[in-house]
User: What shape does this take?
Amino acid sequence: MADVKSGDDSLLFLTDENLRKGIEAMFFAYRGFTSDPDRILQGMDYGRAHHRAVHFIHRAPGTTVGNLLDILGVTKQSLNRVLRSLFDDGLVEARVGRKDRRERHLYLTEKGAALERSLSDAQRARMRSAYRAAGPVAVAGFRTVLEAMMDDSQRRQYTALKDGST
Amino acid sequence: MADVKSGDDSLLFLTDENLRKGIEAMFFAYRGFTSDPDRILQGMDYGRAHHRAVHFIHRAPGTTVGNLLDILGVTKQSLNRVLRSLFDDGLVEARVGRKDRRERHLYLTEKGAALERSLSDAQRARMRSAYRAAGPVAVAGFRTVLEAMMDDSQRRQYTALKDGST
DNA sequence: CTTGGAATGTCAACAAGGCTGACGTAAATT
DNA sequence: AATTTACGTCAGCCTTGTTGACATTCCAAG
Assistant: This one.
């Protein structure tokens, strides 16, 4: 695909220079992307790892620990440290699986949902403002490129969530 | 805001659902974005922090330590630890400023340039494949949205680099 | 010339959040 | 009954970020 004859400059967007700009844009944008939740979380005993856990538990209530491990791509020891503090503080609760009682299904409590809301409100506000400034066509392109940047396994998780439950 | 009259769907891309998808796309894509260099670096004594330092020294040869501090947004103690190991291993060299001799101007050695090349080759390969799959219009949108997501100070640094020296 | 402040380097201590390895328990599966 | 799976936990390590304190060097202003 995209086998462009010479004389055609439609592949100029693939120059190393343009790729470098994209790389640096990712770097700086990701900083902005995480900065608002980070600001909210600092001072609490929580960090970015808690944010991620809370986000995906909110997103897929009743998800199992193992499932969350796959999505977050960390070790169970690492996730467990985070989950334990969320349990202890009453933000997340685990219910034993009904079908398979080895599984723990995770849910946000009211308190947890409140934190999730405050974090995602902040992050969405930045996203919304960026989307609005860029317009719908740019946003579609944004999502297309991001999706193409993922590993296969990540893309599967993303799309599984994308059109997910609720 | 976003007071969309019914019948007009031009602002439908600003729904919370779409914003959430963008947020998750950023999360998963960033993992892909960093995974190739991370894989190369693991096993060496280096990590992502070294990659960033090497990248921006390559990008703006002769940059000062203070300048790099601004770009990377870390403390000098943190950066110094990274730079010291790069000095020790002969990947980066610091030349005392000619005009202001307090400043250290940073340059990659041949060895440092080789590492930079291997890291950025890997990262560019992923980027190129994503760009190619998405096409030029999507790429333009991608960059537009990312730029809109940055903080002002980040955007200034980004654009300063974007059309920068060489 | 002296001094204030800027740029840099360094030491010590600490925290978050990754990691591995090992081990234990309960429950499902074979 | 034996094995595998899902989960939890203990112990220890690494990277990379943080703060605070302090020394050095040197430009620039008084």
Q: What stands out?
A: Chain B touches chain A through 61 residues (CB under 8 Å). Residues 2-7 of chain B have pLDDT under 50 and may be disordered. The radius of gyration of chain B is 19 Å. Residues 42 and 59 of chain B are 23 Å apart (CA to CA).
